[in-house]
Amino acid sequence: MYGDLANKLIIEAKRTEQLTQKYLDAALNSDNGGIRNDFNGNETIIPMYNDELIYNILKEVNQLKQNTEYLQHIKQEEEETKDQLKDVLSGHSNDKIRKCQYFVNLLCLERNKRCLMAYQRMRSDIIDKMVWNGLIGSNNMYNNGSKRSGYNELSHYEQEYMSQYKNLIDEMNSESELWSSIEIMGNMNPPSDIFIDIRVLKDIGEIQTEYGTFNFVKDSQFYVRQSDVERLIQQGYVQKI
Amino acid sequence: MGYYDLDDILADSAEIPCKFLHDIPGLGYLENNPGGTIHVNTQLKLPLWLARVLAIIDASSASDDVGNADIFNTEQQFTPFLNMLTPETFTNKVINAIKTDPISLDLHSINPYFYALAIKWIELFSDKDLAEIVSDLLLQRSQVINAHANSTTISYNNNSNSTSSTGNNNTTNNNHALFTLTLDEFEKKIYKEANDSYKDIKKWIYQY
């Protein structure tokens, strides 16, 4: 039956939405710069783009399109013969049948369209949130292929969308006079302490701050000003203890 | 209730028993008989998004030949392609169950989108009786939902204050888990929102 595949897609989308909501709630409630560091690699914020199902639905849409064209063709032919024969009565019942077939086709098309759009909308909403919450780090994070970023789960177009969305925010932050003095990507929760204990997860090297130079070697611990390492926490290089 | 609303889309896929009023060849795939004909009075289940439109558009093709539309045509009753019959969700059995005990009813097992579907159904048929029953149902159940949302907050707070005494709360939490399983999607949303606001209030009170 047409529309069954699309239904499957929406059920998947619904599950994703619930899981993501849970994850984002947890991330926002933690005072850890909005990020959960205990996030293990197997979980992902966004599930894999369902290429196969989408492809099958598109195939179904194509099929429906062919049906519609066929129906149009038939109708034209019928109209021509109707003019010749002036057989109004049979024309009546045929019209009815064609109309019904046409409507069923059209409704299936509409349904598939709605499901596909809703799926994509759900995903782009998650991507937006990921960008705003800094769940997607800087550019070199993508290259590392870090599982946490969820970047690999996106389709090609979604990756493009994401980077352009990010650029848009950066642009707004840097170009507009109103926003340039505010870090709009910053954490919304007020910090509880100015200084925090951190543990270094990856080798970074020397970092210069107002309070001197720190040599961030893997597994070392420091007591630093939170605003200095905010970005590093978001990128997953250091962990707040 | 927007175009992209996943809940609305899912509610729209509820299956409604339908009765065809015309012979329609070529639509056999709707009853797993590709290429076949659907005959008059065939009963089959169609999703709401398909049935709804077929039930409200007029099958008599008046658009083409307005010219020779005679008096009979205009006086003829409006005939759609199919009639929608009452779905299982709103059969007398369910309605009676709602009337007897709205609170302990497992709404989720009847239909996870009970309210969304009810609203659509009431809209279609202007069914005032059903509207009254459903709004009364929601009123009764929302009080229980509120109570549950409030009491989980307290146990949640106890848990976070003293992590050692979690043993006693397990039974109450179990009850809540069972209770939330009987809610439909709309009620779950209410429950979550109520629960969150209670939590926020507690947080705000205890911060001083």
TrEMBL record, chain A:
Keyword list, A-Z: DNA replication, Nucleus
Organism superkingdom: Eukaryota
GO biological process, one term: DNA strand elongation involved in mitotic DNA replication
Cellular localization per UniProt: Nucleus
GO cellular component: GINS complex
UniProt-listed InterPro entries: GINS_A, GINS_bundle-like_dom_sf, GINS_Psf1, PSF1_C
Segments forming domain GINS subunit: 67-174
Name this polypeptide is given: DNA replication complex GINS protein PSF1
Organism: Arxiozyma heterogenica
TrEMBL record, chain B:
Positions of the GINS subunit domain: 90-205
One annotated Gene Ontology cellular component of this protein: GINS complex
Name recorded for this polypeptide: DNA replication complex GINS protein PSF3
Keywords noted in UniProt: DNA replication, Nucleus
Domain of life: Eukaryota
Domain DNA replication complex GINS protein PSF3 N-terminal: 4-56
Any single Pfam family the record assigns to this protein: PSF3_N
Signal peptide boundaries: none
Gene Ontology biological process terms, A to Z: mitotic DNA replication initiation
Coiled-coil annotated spans: none
Family: Belongs to the GINS3/PSF3 family.
Role, per record: The GINS complex plays an essential role in the initiation of DNA replication.
Complex and partners: Component of the GINS complex which is a heterotetramer of SLD5, PSF1, PSF2 and PSF3.
InterPro entries hit by this protein: GINS_A, GINS_bundle-like_dom_sf, GINS_Psf3, GINS_Psf3_sf, PSF3_N
Chief location: nucleus
Native species: Arxiozyma heterogenica
